[in-house]
């Protein structure tokens, strides 16, 4: 059964529905009578996994978390600076990301998380270890935001549930790549997440979709040495689409959800392979992508498409041995047809947990 969660945006009507065990929160009353929330630890580290968004016809409304790579954030208490957020260091980005917390997704996510926690008595210093390449199509910014939100939340005993922290992740995503939850949702919650409603100023509604027998589901992820920034890949999307194309994608999107809920790996693979709206305009911008798609299916994959905005290609198999063969074929196609070297080629499983303390 799908788990339904409805999150109220700040300043709007609606309720946040969640179930969580009671947690102890330390309260500190200042001389002026104001109540502050104290941290329960001086340091907290969190990891958030890579994600595969869109899954073909599920553009902007479907995503899942996958095992393997991800980003790690360490949050440390800054005494005497209530609500202040600083970025101490970033590793693994080649010096490309800003240390200004207002211009970096971890700074935005941390700031929004502190607001959700309440009136805190301290500030927070962040260190980011980038395990995912920038512009990879594997939810790089979302993993950073999710890890930052969960680490900062952990300093105070994790009083804010993961589903509500998606609001902090959304604010972060909006600052760097657009207001969409199909990466940050699964990176925080794990598993498959369907975004039923996600508009600025309105309640956010997510559906967590359980996948029976997840050990049978394998994702083949091949990331070439090519960067596809989300903003640029969104700029090429069509403003209008033919009725026939819309019907096809609705049909395949429904089949994708059916495949997930019934644990039908073949149906998941075949459905994500049949997007006729987004992939046809983005695919040609990724050198060799169409050849990679054909090579994956010829090697035994049930289907192949672009992961997120790309350039990573994702294929679906039900056997890791077949997955290794598919990964080799996809990598060879990127090299021969796309003239691109390959950063990573891996066969991974669904990540059911999402963000976690490390």
UniProtKB/TrEMBL annotation:
It is an enzyme of class 2 (transferase). Residues 257-335 form the GHMP kinase C-terminal domain. Keywords: Amino-acid biosynthesis, ATP-binding, Kinase, Nucleotide-binding, Threonine biosynthesis, Transferase. SUPFAM superfamilies: GHMP Kinase, C-terminal domain, Ribosomal protein S5 domain 2-like. Its EC number is 2.7.1.39. It comes from the Eukaryota. The keyword Transferase applies. It catalyses: L-homoserine + ATP = O-phospho-L-homoserine + ADP + H(+). Belongs to the GHMP kinase family. Homoserine kinase subfamily. This is Homoserine kinase. It comes from Chlamydomonas incerta.
